[in-house]
Amino acid sequence: MRFSRQMKTVEEALQALLDKLTTLDEEQVQIKEAYGRILAHDIVATCDMPPFDRSPLDGFAVRAADTVHATVEQPVRLRVVETVAAGKVPIIPLEAGCATRIMTGAMMPAGADAVIMFEQTENPGEISEVVGVKRVMRAGENISRRGEEIAMGSVVAKAGERINAGTLAILATFGYTQVSVIRKPRVGLLSTGIELVGIEEPLTPGKIRNSNTTMLSALIAEAGGIPVQYPVLPDDLAGAKEKLTAYIQEVDMLVSSGGVSVGDYDVIASLVDDPDVELLFNRIAMRPGSPTTSLLLSGKPVLALSGNPGACFVGFELFARPALQRQGGQPIVSHRSIKAKLGISYEKPCPYPRYLRGRLATKDGLLLAQPDFNDKAGNLGTLKNSECLIVIPAGGKGKQAGELVEVIVHAAPSWREEV
Length: 419
Description:
Elements: H1 10-18, E1 26-30, E2 43-44, E3 59-62, E4 76-84, E5 98-102, E6 114-117, E7 130-133, E8 155-157, H2 165-173, E9 178-182, E10 186-191, E11 196-197, E12 208-209, H3 211-222, E13 226-229, H4 237-247, E14 253-257, H5 267-271, E15 277-281, E16 293-297, E17 300-305, H6 309-327, E18 337-342, E19 354-363, E20 366-371, E21 388-392, E22 404-409, E23 416-417
Parallel strand pairs: 4-5, 10-13, 10-14, 11-12, 14-17, 18-20, 19-23
Antiparallel strand pairs: 1-9, 2-8, 3-5, 3-6, 4-7, 15-16, 16-17, 18-22, 19-20, 19-21, 21-22
Helix pairs in contact: 1-6, 3-6
């Protein structure tokens, strides 16, 4: 099968991989460690929110019936019986002709059914025993009722959601000091090829530094996984299989770079003929990275990406990131695809869909996708600028500037304004 590969589309290959993956088990973490994690269970409100009737503004709690004759010219005068700050409990119930000076967030006193803001009373900055109310109030006006925002027992965050700062505020509000989250996938990371040297080593003729492992480690962490780095694989098949079999017992997935083509020393490509592995795909209708390969070893996924940095980068975004989303418990696994106008014509024909690295920009209020044109698979000089993958369909003459194209976003866009 190394030399007679069956072609799959990107969508077919990704589905073949996702079909073999399941969500990992859960673990408990402290709320301070929960940012960015995926919720394992729904979170429910442990109390009403607000937990009591309260004032949403600074003013006076009153009985609406006492204000029916109030006007700007003839304010209704009410006796102020107490002042209630946020966090304090009112002591004196309101009777006819009385008012309570009340601060934002403070509990409503018994008997009050409206709050008038300071600005709608006489001498609003003055603290006195009597207040002049200058307008008619309706019962219920300017009151936040108990449970009107969230009722106790309501689901406030759903399983599968990524915990962000707002989620943490909700957890804290309802007293969750710990939360159940999906365990982060442990991803074994390795490269193939005797031509590779460590980034701290000097270059010698025929050697290159191993940039892919450093890049993939960052991408794995960004996607919610835990990278576990292993030594470079040996170039002999028996030795490589032995190492892979040992490594995969320690992780949830293996991601490798290099060794997927049909060269004499491409060990991952040769491994697909081993009876102990289940091949998922080893040829994809895409450029760059068509030899990208995936298989199951000991029942766990191995994703083998191209050794060329650009193709390796594209392969990770198209396959590894969604795979980590599935293992990490996200209920919807997909590429973040949008439409944008192509900023510059791309006329290079290709028999397969081409995934161009590029960036997003705006011009006259329209979204543009700008390819970097450094699209040779081995080129890495513009990787740091990549925000998206621009999909150029197969065949034809590419796409002209101004045409709509599919764009897979993989980084926070900088939204430069084109001139």
